[in-house]
Specification:
The protein is α/β, with parallel strands linked by helices. The chain has helices at residues 35-51, 64-69, 80-88, 102-105, 109-120, 142-152, 178-187, 190-197, 213-216, 301-323; strands at 4-7, 23-27, 55-61, 94-99, 123-128, 155-158, 163-164, 174-175, 202-208, 222-224, 235-243, 248-256, 267-272, 283-293. The strands form 3 sheets. It has a 6-stranded parallel beta sheet, with helices on both faces. The radius of gyration is 22 Å and the shape is elongated.
Amino acid sequence: MSIQLLRGLHNPGMQPHEPSGKCVATIGNFDGVHLGHQAIILQLIAEAKKRGLPSLVVIFEPQPMEFFKGKESPPRLMCFREKFQALSEFNIDYVFCLKFDADLSQLSAQEFIQKVLLSHLKIDHLVIGDDFRFGGDRLGDYSLLVDSGRENNFTVENTPTVLCESKKSLGKGVRVSSTYVRQLLHEGEFSLVQKVLGRPYEMAGRVIHGEKLGRQLGFPTANISIKRINAPFSGVFAVSLSFESGTSYQGVANLGVKPTVGNFKPSLEVYLLDFDGDIYGKKVSVHFRHKIRQERKFDGIEDLKVQIEKDVEHAKRYFNSLDS
């Protein structure tokens, strides 16, 4: 059975597929689906298989910090579609997406256990990360879940911290987290990002019509809808862009607000090297390989054009160095 998406507490859940209605579940934002998340997911799948029950990942939309802080919340590493796609690559039975709204935010930890875990999911076993907290009263943690499990006949399993290398940790390792991934992206450490994620960092979206300024400058760009309030990093990068068919091209990407032309919403534009074609409406994935420079405002369009020429040459040298 391929992964199935369930939405909201109104959804009847898994009972049609599992006579007992029980499941093995985990809960979290899973933003980035990094190595720490992957360790939880593999633990979840193994336990579900051992018990002969469906595996289920509970996520929230919007993410809780987005509900409470809006534009001031930490930038997402993944939009919902990217997250669901990443989770789909594992042998998970269900993703259960809960709408995080005022009602859900006000549930106490005990109410969350009763309403979500027991009444709706009929939880048999729960796998959680070592930093998991829940409930409007912020009293929900591993200890509370263990106590509740004893009273309600479900079990709880914690997962150890996953450590990875860091240039600053002098061999001690640093805890893998979404916050750490954002830090690495901001610093342009894409090789470390790839190790922490287990894959290159990417953004996916559909190519849309833009202002076509790049075409006027002699560098036609693919404008990609990234559906984000804010971006986790910005700048100009050497990237590879791949289509659903698997075909891939090298390019130069600008991720940010394009200060020279007065844009305010984060946008992603990619100029493809050695490519000439119509790709409007195509779904693409942009893999970030190397940071060329920070985004900055230029005195005029001509200065911007000169800099783009330099950026393209920089990207070409970078890709050529990989082949040498």
